[in-house]
Structures are given as structure tokens and as C-alpha cells.
Design a protein that fits this description.
Number of helices of chain A: 15
CATH class of chain B: Mainly Alpha
Largest sheet of chain A: 5 strands, antiparallel
Order of helices and strands of chain A: HHHEEEEEEEHHHHHHHHHHHH
CATH class of the largest domain in chain A: Mainly Alpha
Number of domains of chain B: 1
Radius of gyration of chain B: 24 Å
Radius of gyration of chain A: 32 Å
Largest interface: A-B, 106 and 105 residues
Number of strands of chain A: 7
Oligomer: heterodimer
Shape of chain A: elongated
CATH superfamily of chain B: MetI-like
Largest sheet of chain B: none
Number of helices of chain B: 13
Order of helices and strands of chain B: HHHHHHHHHHHHH
Helix content of chain B: 55-70%
Distance between the termini of chain A: 59 Å
CATH architecture of the largest domain in chain A: Orthogonal Bundle
CATH topology of the largest domain in chain A: MetI-like fold
Distance between the termini of chain B: 22 Å
């Protein structure tokens, strides 16, 4: 207390260690500008969230506020009347229910004091504004849940993502270990070839691949989505290989001298040290699979019972495109899990992206 | 030990391709055998899902394959290529793809770079939170993101409302107007630039501070440092994002497919090359003609990549390499 008093009484001197004014100004300008960019960037999520909680009427009413709200009503003598803000002759504004509409004068009743009878107000009721009360329509979510058999779509999405992730992690770990720890003729060329596949347009391999899958009877099953995952991909091999290169060779050399096989070294020496990258690849692969649209679209077309969420969502949009609230509720339901996974593991994501430069 | 990232790895350095000339010792042969064994999943996958299909696609172009094969299968020489040359729809769709690329590519390079520059500034408060938030939409499933934006860019969407508030009484109906459709698609695309921001930011953080100190001693201000230190040091990353961006944009069609159900509306502007290709294949089931279109796309992608790699020798600076 006394210390405060002393400080307050002393002459105001700018603390010598504090930031200079121009630094403060730069900080303020940049922080405000970047915050605005971030808010603008995330606003579609908020828009979708609000819209998913509105009724169709709230969406179509141009005067409705941003938050999902209903205009207030009042039930009187078996009828429902809209409540308006009414400016009274004495300057006060009262919330009154409109019981009899008229062009130049209207009759209102006070919901708080119905015994006082109707109040006649001079003027056009159309100029009056309505009080809104927030009223989120959680039932939209329940409706979507029932309309699109959400549990089934969710199960399909998770199952495809989990099996694909298992295949990716297994195959990419083996291949990355091969590239990181063994010398063999053509290694540099093969590694370059592996990375070059990143630049290959998918269209140039799609037609024969699809045709073969048709001939094998795989179209209409999950196999075209799952089997390729077990044969490694460039991004994840690169990610794991770069990590394995940072693990010192001393331990695996010692294990090799003790007679451990290459596979044993991978399992007992390398993997226990490589779990950060394994986790990173697992999460990436899971979210990538969750967000894959084109593969399921072409290979599972017409097989609604085995489709994942995104394809179901796209169908749902085709059928219900006039019901924006339900579309957005379905959107939120589809994006919630990947966004939550990201929120939990955002460090893992950013680290992995830095190394591979994934831009998929 | 810091290893190069994909963006800073030089893919065109033939030094690492050199094969050992000497005969392998038995021990080295054993090591090589094990190495091949471990990479064999990828080799099998590469042959089965990349190399053989690519060659098969090329072979298809000389035949008259269709999925139902009503005509007898026969060798047609260059007929498919001749048809391609005279197919106005193909060239119109290719022109659409190039027009969209011309709008999208500069944005996809500059916006992440600028955002990363902002995030990297010592003047910014709350940088790591902002980085996380800017990245978040990247994990939003593609269809959900497109449908969110479909509403956002709608007649009563927030974008139109903000423009009305700013004094534009008739804001563009983005997705239904041939003039505004590409800017609208660019806005949708910007939602996925989170990864680009992260890559650029990592690049900026990797620039040695001595370089900036030296530049300041030489009297360079903000712009001087940006031009003479930041941009040259970032050139491998900019180059990498550009190459991947070109490959991606040449194949662009999924967003308009979801938005417009493949109709090419408004006014044929969203009939992109790849949409045309996939319709040829899936809707009309013309395997051989689709394959010919795929090889044209591959040829264009390869040509652009080769030109960019050639240009990169002059414009891209790889630190520690000559």
C-alpha cells in the first residue's frame, strides 16, 4: 500500500527499460492488422456455426441478428402475437405485443400488465423494431444425425482412416529405414524417383488403375483406398527418413556386432527412439484419410452403406441444398473431429509440415 | 543435426545418383540386399500404382478402349491425338485452367509469404496463437470447407454483407458471375494456405540473423533487407511452393465439382481441364481418349516443371551449395 502511494507521488518518469513509443506503435499496428486477418480467416467457421443453429425462417429474414435468435412473441387469449419496441409519447420505450395491426394506428398490449387493456399507438407498426432473443436450434444436429445415418458414416470414416494409417505407418517405416540405414547401388536415384512422384499428376495413372480395380471387383469396396496405403508414399517416407538420419548410429552398430538382425535393430533400437515421427505420421495419415474426398467418391459411388462422411456430406448437400441450416450442421459435424485432433496435436502438425512441406 | 526439408532439398543434384563402380564386397552385398528388401514395399507400389499405370495410360492412347468396348478393340495410331487437336472443348477447358492459374498462383505464393512475414515479426504479440489459428482451416475436410464458403459467398453471406456495409449496394454474386467466379474460388483456396504459412515461417526462422545484422551495418532498411536478404534466402521455399502449386492448379477441379456439380457453370468458366478429363473417363467412359487427355496434362506439367527447374538455376539460391 505504502509502496503504491510512493510510486504515485513520485514524478512520472518513463521507465528507461520500457519500449520506445515507436516500438509500441509498430506493435499495435501489426498486432491489430494480423488479428483482423486471423478473425477474417476464421469468420467462415463462426458463420457456419451460427447458421447451423438457426431456423430456416431466421436465415431468410434480412433483419435477423447474427446470432441464432427468434423474435419474441406473447401468447394472449389463445393467440400468438409478435413483440415490438414501442416509443411512447413520454419518451420511454416499452416492449409491447401487437394485437391489432393498422396503417396509421395499432393496438398493443403490455405482456407484463395485461389487465391494463389495449394501448393504442399512433404511427405505422412497420417502422417498429422487434426484440430478439437468442434461441439456438440444437435440433438441427439431431435432424442431420437421423437424415444421413451419421453413426454409419462416422464408423466408415474412422475405419478407413485407421486401416489406412496402419498401412502407411508400417510400410513407410520399413522403406524409410531402408533408405536411411543401408547402402545399395542406385539408392540416390531411387530416392529421387520416390520424391519425384510428388510432382506426378494423379490423372496420368488413374485410368488404368481404376480399370484394373474394376476388373478385380474392387470398385465398391474399401480395397482401392486401403491397399495402396500399404505400399508407402513419398511424403511420409521422407518425413521418417529425415528423422531416422538424426538418430546416432552407435547403438544400432553395437546391436549389429552383437548379432542382431536388421529387423531386430529396427524393432528394438530404432523404433523406441523414433516414436515422435511415428506419431506425427500417424496423425497426418489419419487426418489426410479423413479429408480424402476424390478416392471414396470414385471408388465407392453408389454404395452408400460403405461411404465415409465427406461423400455422404456431398450427397446430403445435393438433396438438401435449400436447407442451409442443415447443410451447415452437417458441415460442423464433419469438421469437428479433425479440428479437435488438430487442436490437441498442433505442434506435431506444424513440425511435420515444416519437414515435408506438405501442401496437399 | 538439422537435415534439409523437402523444400530445401535439391532434387536435381545428379551427384547423389552415381553408382559405385567397384565390385561390392560380400558384406556390402548383404547390406545392399537388406536395403532392397526394406524398400521393396515402395518398389512394388511404385511399379504397381505408378510406373505400370503410367505406361499403360500411354499405351491406351493408341487404341480405342472404352469401358463397355462396343467396337472391336484395335490400334488407332494417332487418331486420339488428332481428335484432341481439334477438340474445342479441350482447349477451352485448358484455357480456363490457365486463366485460373494466373489468378491463383500469385495469391498462393504472396499471401502465405506476407502472413509468415507478419508472424515472424518481433513486433507481433500473440504470434504462436495466430499461427495455430491460421493453420486450423487446413484440417477442415474439403467438402465441409467448400460448403461453408458456398454460404459465406452467397447473396446474404457475410462477405456480401460486409461489402454492403462498406457502401457497395450491389456486391458481386461471386459464384454465379463469370467475372467474379475465379476471385471467389481464390477466396475458397486461401482457406487452405495454412501449410504454406507454416512452411514460409519455418524458412524465415531459418535465415541466419548475422545476414540481417550485416545488411543493417551496410545501411539496409526494411525494404533493403527484404530484397537482399529475405527473398534470396527464401527462394528455395518459394520455388518449392510454386512447383507444387503449379502441379496442383493444373489438376484443379474438385472445388467447382462440389460447388457446381460438374456443370461448368457459370458460363462454362468452371469447366476446368481436369473436370473435362474426368467426365470423359467417368461419364462418357472413353478410356483411350481420357488417357490421351491425361498424357497431354502430364506433358504440360512436365514441361512447366522442367522450365521452372531450369529457371531455378538462375533465380533460386541454395545456401551451402553451388
Amino acid at each position: 500500500m505504502s509502496a503504491f502511494a510512493t510510486a504515485a507521488q513520485s514524478r512520472p518518469v518513463r521507465p528507461s527499460r520500457g519500449p520506445r513509443p515507436e516500438v509500441v506503435i509498430r506493435r499495435a499496428i501489426l498486432t491489430v492488422a494480423m488479428s483482423a486477418a486471423v478473425i477474417a480467416f476464421l469468420s467462415p467457421l463462426a458463420y457456419s456455426g451460427f447458421m447451423s443453429l438457426k431456423t430456416e425462417q431466421q436465415i431468410s429474414d434480412p433483419n435477423a441478428p447474427i446470432l441464432p435468435s427468434d423474435s419474441r412473441t406473447f401468447d394472449y387469449q389463445g393467440e400468438t402475437y409478435d413483440v415490438y419496441y414501442v416509443p411512447m409519447p413520454d419518451g420511454a420505450t416499452r416492449e409491447l405485443a401487437l394485437v391489432k395491426k393498422g396503417r396509421t394506428q395499432s393496438d398493443f398490449i403490455d405482456p407484463a400488465d395485461t389487465g391494463a387493456g389495449t394501448i393504442t399507438w399512433q404511427g405505422s407498426w412497420r417502422t417498429l423494431s422487434q426484440p430478439w432473443q437468442v434461441n439456438p436450434q440444437w435440433s438441427n444436429y439431431a435432424e442431420v444425425w437421423n437424415q444421413i445415418d451419421f453413426p454409419r458414416l462416422l464408423f466408415n470414416t474412422v475405419a478407413i482412416a485407421l486401416i489406412g494409417t496402419l498401412g502407411t505407418v508400417l510400410s513407410c517405416t520399413l522403406v524409410a529405414y531402408g533408405f536411411a540405414r543401408f547402402r545399395f547401388p542406385g539408392r540416390g536415384l531411387l530416392f529421387t524417383l520416390l520424391l519425384a512422384t510428388i510432382f506426378l499428376p494423379g490423372a496420368v495413372t488413374l485410368i488404368p488403375t481404376y480399370t484394373i480395380f474394376v476388373k478385380l471387383g474392387w470398385v465398391g469396396t474399401w480395397l482401392p483406398l486401403l491397399v495402396p496405403a500399404f505400399f508407402a508414399n513419398a511424403y511420409d517416407v521422407f518425413l521418417i527418413r529425415q528423422y531416422l538420419m538424426t538418430i546416432p548410429r552407435d547403438l544400432d552398430e553395437a546391436a549389429a556386432i552383437d548379432g542382431a538382425s536388421a529387423f531386430r535393430i529396427l524393432r528394438s533400437v530404432i523404433l523406441p527412439q523414433a516414436w515422435p515421427v511415428i506419431i506425427a505420421v500417424s496423425i497426418f495419415s489419419f487426418v489426410y484419410s479423413w479429408n480424402d474426398f476424390f478416392g471414396p467418391l470414385i471408388y465407392l459411388a453408389g454404395h452408400e452403406d460403405i461411404q465415409p462422411l465427406q461423400v455422404g456430406l456431398s450427397h446430403f448437400n445435393g438433396i438438401y441444398h435449400t436447407k442451409a441450416n442443415l447443410i451447415q450442421a452437417a458441415n460442423i459435424m464433419t469438421l469437428l473431429i479433425p479440428v479437435l485432433i488438430f487442436a490437441m496435436f498442433q505442434r506435431v502438425f506444424t513440425r511435420g509440415i515444416v519437414i515435408t512441406g506438405v501442401e496437399k | 543435426m538439422e537435415l534439409p526439408t523437402l523444400a530445401t532439398t535439391r532434387l536435381t543434384s545428379p551427384r547423389s545418383w552415381r553408382l559405385p563402380r567397384t565390385r561390392l564386397t560380400p558384406l556390402a552385398r548383404r547390406e545392399a540386399r537388406q536395403g532392397y528388401l526394406f524398400i521393396s514395399p515402395w518398389i512394388v507400389g511404385f511399379l504397381a500404382f505408378t510406373a505400370v499405370p503410367m505406361l499403360a495410360t500411354l499405351a491406351f492412347t493408341f487404341f480405342n478402349f472404352t469401358l463397355s468396348q462396343e467396337e472391336p478393340l484395335r490400334f488407332v495410331g494417332l487418331d486420339n491425338y488428332a481428335r484432341l487437336a481439334g477438340d474445342a472443348r479441350v482447349w477451352a477447358s485448358l484455357a480456363n485452367t490457365f486463366k485460373f492459374a494466373a489468378v491463383w498462383l500469385p495469391v498462393s505464393i504472396v499471401v502465405p509469404f506476407l502472413l509468415a512475414l507478419g508472424l515472424n515479426s518481433k513486433y507481433l504479440l500473440g504470434s504462436s496463437l495466430m499461427r495455430t489459428l491460421l493453420f486450423a482451416p487446413y484440417v477442415v475436410p474439403f467438402v465441409a470447407g467448400v460448403l461453408v464458403w458456398n454460404a459465406m459467398l452467397g447473396e446474404d453471406g457475410w462477405i456480401a454483407n460486409v461489402l454492403r456495409f462498406l457502401g457497395n449496394p450491389s456486391p458481386p454474386v461471386w459464384l454465379f458471375d463469370t467475372t467474379w467466379i475465379y476471385p471467389g474460388l481464390v477466396l475458397i483456396g486461401i482457406w487452405g494456405i495454412g501449410a504454406g504459412v507454416i512452411i514460409n515461417l519455418a524458412g524465415l526462422r531459418g535465415i541466419p540473423t548475422e545476414l540481417y545484422e550485416a545488411a543493417r551495418i551496410d545501411g539496409a532498411g526494411f525494404w533493403g533487407q527484404l530484397r537482399n536478404v529475405t527473398i534470396p534466402m527464401m527462394s528455395p521455399i518459394i520455388f518449392y511452393t510454386l512447383i507444387l502449386g503449379v502441379i496442383d492448379v493444373l489438376q484443379y477441379f474438385l472445388v467447382p465439382l462440389v460447388l457446381k456439380n460438374g456443370t461448368g457453370e457459370p458460363g462454362g468458366t468452371t469447366l476446368f481441364y481436369n473436370l473435362n478429363l474426368y467426365q470423359t473417363f467417368f461419364t462418357f467412359q472413353e478410356l483411350s481418349y481420357g488417357a490421351t487427355m491425361a498424357w497431354l496434362l502430364f506433358g504440360i506439367a512436365l514441361l512447366v516443371t522442367v522450365i521452372l527447374f531450369w529457371l531455378s538455376r538462375r533465380f533460386v539460391f541454395y545456401a551451402g551449395q553451388r
